[in-house]
Amino acid sequence: MLSQMPRPRTALGTYGVIHTQELEAGKWRARTLYRFQDGKRRQVERIREGKTSTKAVAALKQALTSIDVPGDSYADVKAAMTVSALADTFLASKLEAGKTIRTIDTYRHQIDKIIRPRLGDLQVSEATPARVQRFITTVTKENGPGAAKGCRSVLSGMFAMAVRNDALKSNPVSAVEGIAKGPSRAASAIPLDQVASFRAAIRADPELQRLDISDLFEFMLFTGCRIGEALALRWSHVNLDKAAVTFAASVSRAKGQGLVLQEHGKTASSSRTITVSTEVVALLRARARNRGDLVFPSMLGNLRDTSNTEADWRLNRDRLGYPGLTSHAFRKTVATALDVGGLSARAIAEYLGHKRPSMTQDVYMSRTTGSDASAAQLHRMFGVNPESGD
Questions:
Q1: Looking at the whole model, is its pTM more than 0.85?
Q2: Where exactly are the structural domains of the chain?
Q3: Is the C-alpha dihedral spanning 292, 293, 294, 295 positive or negative?
Q4: Which CATH architecture has domain 83-175?
Q5: Is residue 11 scored above 90 in pLDDT?
C-alpha cells in the first residue's frame, strides 16, 4: 500500500483557506490559519456585518498584511517594490525612530533630487552592485563627491532595511568602491593667537551688538557647541552656581513647519553637560538680568533662525576682517585649543558632543562629562580680557 506524501507546510507569513460563516442574520465571520514567524499556525478571524461575507473576508485579508510585523520589520518591503517606494518606507522608519528633522530633510532632499530620478523606477531586486556603482560614479562626476557620499549613505540604509526584511540577500552598496575626496570646504579654525583680537572686534562692533551676535559667538567660542544647540539653550539647562550648561536640544527649520525646537541633539552623544569657563558664567549672568525662556532668542524674543544668524554674520565679517569665517569655525578652534592643551581625543570628543573620538581627530583637530580640564584650558587660552590686557 502506497503511503501518502505529507502535505507541504504553509510558508511563513502565509495563510490557508479562508472559511466563512454567517453567525446570525447579516453578521459574517471569516477565519483562516496563519503561519507566524515563530513557525506556529494560529487561527485569525474578523467579523463584519453585511449581506454577504465579502466585508469580513476583506477585513481579514487586510489584517493579515500587517499581523506579524514586529520592531524594525515592514510587511510591505518586498523585492518587487520600486526603489522609490522603498525610499518612502525608509523615511517613515526614520521618523518613527526619532531622527532629527534636519536629518530627515537631508535624506529627503537626496532621495527626491538625486536618487528617485535615476533609480526610483527600478525594482529593489534590480538594484545590483553594478547598477549602484554606475549611479554613484555618475553622481560623483555630476554632483560632486559630497553628494555621492550622501546618496551612498542613504541607499545603504534603504537596502539594509530590505535585507532585514528578506527582500534582498545582501546590501549592494557594500560592494561600491570608495569615493575620492574632493576639495575640502570645511571651516577653518581661528588661529589661537588671534582669538583675543577676534573677541575684541565682535564686542566692540555696534552692529553685532545690535543684532545680539557678540554674546552668542563668544559663548560658542568657549563651549564649542553647534549654533543650533546654542540657539536652543534655555535657562532651565543652565546652572550658574555650578558653572554647568546642558545641551539637550537643537533648533531646526523643518519643511512645512518653520522653526522647531527639537528636544534632542544631532546625535545620541550630542546631549551632554559641560563645565564652562568663568568668562561664560559672567556672560550668562549679564544676560540673565533680562531673560525670557531662551538664552539667545531672536530680537523679538522667539526662536532664532540658524540660517538668518549666519546670514547676519556674513554681511559683517568682511568689514571686520574675517572673510570666509563661519560659526562652525568656533568648534574647530575649541578642538584645536584643547588639543594644544594636551587633552585626550576622548575628552575633546565628549566636550564637543561627538560619538567617536576618531571624528574629532580627523575633522576637528583642530553626555554628562567631567569637563573641568576643558573649561580651564579654554580659560587659559581665550580668557584674556581684550579690553584690559589682563
A1: no
A2: 19-64, 83-175, 192-382
A3: positive
A4: Orthogonal Bundle (1.10)
A5: no
